[in-house]
Design goal:
The chain is mostly helical. Helix content is 39%, strand content 6%. It has a 5-stranded parallel beta sheet with strand order 2-1-3-4-5, with helices on both faces. Helix 4 runs parallel beside helix 6 (198-215) and helix 6 (198-215) runs parallel beside helix 10.
């Protein structure tokens, strides 16, 4: 899920003035007190020459600096009443017309239509299924137009380390908006010890945003939070079908031995939950450094996917109904006047 930053820069132009090397005068005249021809003291003539020199220096300085009463300071701003030139402020586009998606199986709508298959037409981000009403359909309009103006580069099984490569493909399209939803697979491993380290997660996400900015600096980025895997366990463990399916190895770090409430299993689930929270903190922090990036404020993490919002084939991925809820959350946040808190 993933793109981290772009900001306008202004350049200041400073002014410099030279000094008159011939403008210095001395007061310690070794001939002070001697009489000049005609009885006029040399000291008096020295003072007159010094005064003339000072007057000439002042006239020259006025000529050099008096042409413009305002000046450029080192930071590029104008002083003494002149207009200050500021970089234009970026305004979030609430109705982008082209969308590229990066992420994992959620954005590919895996298991939403048929078992063990991607169903990109039902994707929350770029899908054309009217039953889902994807973000693209809500923003752009009819399915034919959506197909021409959207690109889904997400891949089932992807982790954050895969997002820079996906983002490179998205950047080449120079879309007005890139959606990012990734991180569940980083936490869903065969064991808690194999989860992606938080700093590796950060490095990959930062690199993905840099990849985007190098090619498409004006693309906006909408970042969804990682879903709450522990809440998913709490929901599905009550269902006998869900428990049986999870025994096949789906997200083992969280869902393995789903009925085990012992201290070891509880500690394992808590560790996975903490990692997901840490991933979301990274998404928020890195996104905040990019002027054109908007994080969902933890909206997806906070949403409780239940019942028919989960795939009936794995009780893990969103169904069409769940995909529609993701689209609804994204649309609300992208079209809002301000970013979620």
């Amino acid at each position: 899920m993933h793109d981290r930053h772009s900001a306008a820069r202004t350049t200041g132009y400073g002014t410099s003035g030279g000094t008159d090397s011939g403008g210095g005068t001395g007061t310690g005249d070794p001939g002070a007190g001697a009489e000049a021809p005609g009885g006029r003291p040399a000291r008096r003539r020295g003072r007159a020459a010094a005064a003339a020199g000072v007057s000439a220096a002042l006239v020259l300085a006025a000529a050099l600096t008096g042409c413009d009463s305002s000046s450029d300071s080192d930071d590029g701003t104008r002083t003494k009443g002149a207009a200050v030139k500021k970089a234009p402020e970026f305004v979030w586009d609430r109705s982008p017309g082209t969308i590229a998606a990066v992420g994992d199986s959620i954005t590919r709508s895996f298991n939403a239509c048929t078992v063990l298959s991607d169903c990109p037409e039902s994707s929350w981000s770029t899908g054309t299924d009217s039953r889902v009403r994807s973000l693209a359909l809500r923003l752009i309009g009819d399915p034919a137009t959506v197909s021409q103006r959207t690109w889904n580069y997400a891949k089932t099984g992807a982790e954050m380390a895969d997002i820079p490569a996906q983002m490179a493909k998205a950047a080449a399209r120079k879309p007005e908006l890139v959606t990012v939803l990734v991180g569940a697979n980083d936490a869903c491993s065969d064991s808690a010890e194999l989860m992606t380290p938080v700093e590796d997660f950060r490095t990959s996400f930062t690199g993905a945003l840099k990849q985007l900015r190098a090619v498409s600096p004006k693309s906006q980025v909408y970042v969804s939070s990682v879903p709450d895997l522990k809440r998913l366990w709490e929901t599905g463990r009550e269902d006998p079908v869900g428990r049986q399916i999870w025994k096949l190895g789906i997200c083992a770090s969280m869902l393995k031995d789903s009925e085990d409430l012992g201290p070891e299993a509880t500690a394992r689930r808590a560790r996975v939950q903490e990692r997901v929270v840490a991933y979301n903190a990274v998404l928020k922090e890195v996104c905040a450094t990019d002027l054109r990036c908007r994080y969902d404020g933890g909206a997806v993490f906070s949403y409780a996917f239940v019942g028919d919002q989960l795939s009936r084939w794995d009780w893990f991925h969103p169904s069409r109904n769940g995909q529609s809820r993701l689209a609804e959350i994204a649309y609300r946040n992208i079209t809002a006047a301000g970013a979620p808190k």
